[in-house]
Amino acid sequence: IRRKFMAEFRFIHCSDLHIDSPFKGLTSQAPTLASALRESTFKAFKEISRLALQEKVDAVLIAGDVFDGADRSLQAQLKFRHILKELSDENIQSFIVHGNHDPLNSWAHTLEWPEHVTIFPGNKVHHVPAKKEGKNIAWVYGISYPQKEVTENLALKFKNEKKEGFSIGLLHTNVGQQPGHDNYAPCSINDLVSRNFDYWALGHIHEFKVLRESDPAIVYSGNTQARHSREAGQKGCCLVTLSTDGPPDIRFISTDVVAYRSATIDLQAAESINDVLSSIQVQCEELAKESISREGLVARLTLTGRTSIHKELQAAGVINALTEEIHIFFEGHSPWVSVELRTQTAGTYDINSLKEGKDFIADLVNLCDDVEKDTLSDKIRDSIKPVFESWAGRKYLEEISTEEMDELIHKSRNLALDQLVDNS
After folding, report:
1. Of 38, 354, 364, 391, whose Cβ has the fewest other Cβ atoms within 10 Å?
2. Residue range 94-111, pLDDT digits in tens
3. Band of the pLDDT at 156, cuts 50, 70, 90?
């Protein structure tokens, strides 16, 4: 369809705001950060609002999981509504679908929303015009989750009505059964392509991904603010321009106010705890410089290397003491700094010499360091499978990745060698 009436449609595509997320793991270690972290997801959405007003976009599309869970407060919903009203007052429309964290049956239904806000129902796919200067420049199609667990392929419910203007699908879904996320509203890229839309604004996957660049563009904007260290890297939204003159222009804009970063620190040359503290401080300062535009930094640091103070680092209370000392060192720093320390150091024994032996230690080292480590990894997965399959809490855990399994094998080997070599 030739859209002669309007050259372009500009909007912000965001998802997985997770406003009011509790950040349980980190705040239990550093309670003073609880307020700053809890506010971070809301502040990230305020950044989106600021960007929308600055760029004078035509609309803001939110692809599900506005809030983190059913225990969201009315206060959080009112704060969210306030931002939407600021956009509405500037004639910027907002289009919202519910996801698995914020299904329709868990919202405050009596809350009235601003004039230019559309919240899609969950009974069927609806389509609503996006207007500019009184003209329909696009049609946004969407459907919400009526309850948390939606296993149906919702993409197949979408049908392009072929009305004048761009067509956009707004959906919370797992395309291609991507790991690390529940397989809700599963669909394939081909399912989405077959609907003949111009752009798919997707939510659910917490990472910016362009699955297809055009005809149609299929995009995950990712979450707007990381909530734990496994979500390292910039988080944000997409500033999108659909044009009749060319392919979509998709720009990722960071919105996170708290940076989550990961790094390793090699302690091979460390001879004392003072050396360890100095290395951690230097690494944190480098990460803080990279995050100077943000309010805070959460650094997940892994201590590695063969070091003469390996055993000292393994002693009870040492890591907690190091963490507390780093927090004291950065007190009052901007951005504020919080650290999570993990140890993967090893003793100074000669691995190559141990491999050449004719004893159990040599067998152990060779088994763990074998280039065909997949065999050992598969055996471990098979051995723990019965335990997890019979445990009700299994559904709350992500699958162990290849990298995590290699890390477990490496750490187990070093723990065993610490005991075996010293006692031999």
Report:
1. 391
2. 999 998 887 877 766 567
3. very high
